[in-house]
Amino acid sequence: MTFWVVQALNGVSFGMLLFLLAAGLSLIFGVMKVLNLAHGSFYLLGAYLGLTVLRLTHSFLLALAAAALGVAALALLLERTVLRRIYGEELRQALLTFGVLFIIADQALWIWGGNPQTLPKPAGFTASVRLGDVIFPSYRLLVIAVGVVMGAALWWLQERTRVGAVIRAGVDDEEMARGIGVNTPLLFTAVFALGAFLAGFGGVMGGALLGVYPGADFEVLLLAFVVIIIGGLGSLKGAFVGGLLVGLIDNFGKAFFPELALFTVFAPMAAILAVRPTGLFGKA
Amino acid sequence: MRPARLVGIFAALFILAAPAFLSTYYLGLLTKMLIFALFAMSLDLLLGYTGLPSLGHVAYFGTGAYTVGLLSLRVVKTFWINALAGLAAPTLVALGFNLLTIRARGSYFLMITLALAQVLWGIAFGWRSFTGGDDGLPGIARPMLGGWSMAGEVPFHYFAVVVFGVCLWLLSVVVRSPLGRALVGIRESETRMRVLGYNVWAYQYVASILAGFFAGVAGVLFVYYNGYVGPAYLSVVVSGQALLMVILGGAGTLVGPALGAAIIVLLENFLSAYTERWLTALGIIYVVVTLYAPRGVLGILRDRLGGGRRAAT
User: What is the pLDDT of residues A59-117, one digit of tens each?
Assistant: First the structure.
């Protein structure tokens, strides 16, 4: 029984990290029609930036803010200087971000080295808590709480604010939104930076949970893909439900079939794809 | 005689006569260029002709390589059995994978092909007892063909040249056939082809399986070339390089991607000798090509020399 509870909580906390990534990826694709292959790199960069700031300041909150804003700033620059020049060309944009993936991975390896590193957990969350018979690291609970709060905040932003209305308009029909006076170039820049912000934020949270190492960028990118393939592109609810599902499946898969870890995640993805090509909550 | 044909004949002569004047090292490099040219051309069938951008093409390349590696080290050394199995396995994988992928378009297609290929990478990397995990499978001997050993660089070069030549011929027959014409039609407008009564799904499915088969041929060649197979053969980096080769050379031209492959293999060889930051260089090439040369070297040459005689295909 304890085993199941612990594994399920592990799965949910990992699922929340995946949600942070997938929400940004999904938002960027929904509004800009850009498949951002560098999204995992934003996560990786966030984790490394967080590590450096933590070493300098010993403040987790400062690291979180610096990493999220730093990555968002880089994304803003990237969108303004290069991505903008090839709007409307899906394949070229995807390839461009793929090039960025290589550059960031290689530069991060150069700057931060190849050894796995772990971000120190924030003060007050280094120990474990006892819940009945189950002993559970309190940081994982924090990750779950943060994921839920971020999810609620994103939902509020998207459904209850003027900015959210503009974003939804952009997702539904970019051309029409432009027609009625939405400044879509600005919207695109903002959405790309917001997605990167979430990825950088997730990088720091995840770096303290799973560590950071070369290749982590690609690992999380791939799982975020699976999340949005399952949940449906452009859907916040899909990213949340998909994140939970993939987090749980990945954890139990690794516990039961350690040698076939990836397979246990991709088999359900293939099954959903065969039945519902647009994912659980995606629009056709 | 058109200049393109002259260049082609010159290239063929160069490749055939190369053992006479190239050192063993550079001859090996040339052979590697041929193998990746074949791999890039197989992707071109999918991306350039059919309009399906795959980021998981390495799945077939790696499956071919691993099949040969596993069989020859664990079961039987007979070349023909291993090679046939090495071609059959990727074809079967293509039959299975593309049942799922062909339903998707554009970015979805990229994502799904990438995800599926990564499953195979995960198995190769994780299943140590079977695949050797991260260490891969070293010590795969080059074959004997009709009493001739392919172990030396020169005979293996000619072996690769023959395989490459046959595949190039087959591929050019395919793209000129009614099938190839229909594929280009689908690339240009799926709706129009559907209205004309074409079964678009079936054409795309066949194209993806052919592409998988030829990628498998390249994988089989490469495993004998290196005498080794490891998870890197299934890595997305190779899939990405193949995409770059196709676009750098000029998608939808067959010859262009072969040229692109030659350029990338050469660049990798020289740049990684001078800098450890080869991946950064590759990333920069990516960005530059997508921004400034989306139609590739061949596209640019055609614009400059062709005088508009042939617009974009």
Answer: 999 999 999 999 999 999 999 998 888 887 888 888 899 999 999 999 999 999 889 99
Q: Does the residue B267 lie in any domain?
A: no
Q: At a CB cut-off of 8 Å and minimum separation 6, what does B309 contact?
A: none
Task: Name the amino acid, one letter, at A240.
Answer: F
Task: For chain B, list residues whose CB is within 8 angstroms of any CB belonging to chain A.
Answer: 53, 55, 99-100, 103-104, 106-108, 110-112, 114-116, 118-119, 121-123, 126-129, 236-237, 240, 243-244, 247, 276-280, 282-287, 289-291, 294
Q: What CA–CA distance (Å, rounded) separates A195 from A202?
A: 11
**pLDDT digit string, tens, across residues B3-34:** 777 888 888 888 888 888 888 888 889 999 99
Question: From CA A70, how far away is CA B182, in angstroms rounded?
Answer: 49
- To the nearest whole angstrom, how far is the Cα of A146 from the nearest Cα of chain B? 28
Reported pTM: 0.88
- Number of independent structural domains in chain B: 1
Which of A255, A219, A237, A249 has the alpha carbon at shortest distance from A116?
Answer: A219
Q: How confident is the model at residue A7 (pLDDT cuts 50, 70, 90)?
A: confident
Q: A117: which DSSP letter?
A: B
Host domain of residue B122: 29-235
Question: Which residues in chain B are closer than 8 Å to A266, comparing Cβ atoms?
Answer: 115-116, 118-119, 122
Residue A215's pLDDT is: 86
What residue ranges define each of the domains in chain A, with the CATH number in brackets?
2-275 (1.10.3470)
Kindly list the residues of chain A whose beta carbon comes within 8 Å of any beta carbon in chain B: 29, 33, 35, 82, 85-86, 89-96, 98-107, 110, 218, 222, 225-226, 228-229, 233, 258-263, 266, 269-270, 273-274, 277
CA angle, A207 then A212 then A214, to 5°:
155
With beta carbons under 8 A apart, name residues in chain A contacting B110: 35, 91, 94
Residue B156 in domain: yes
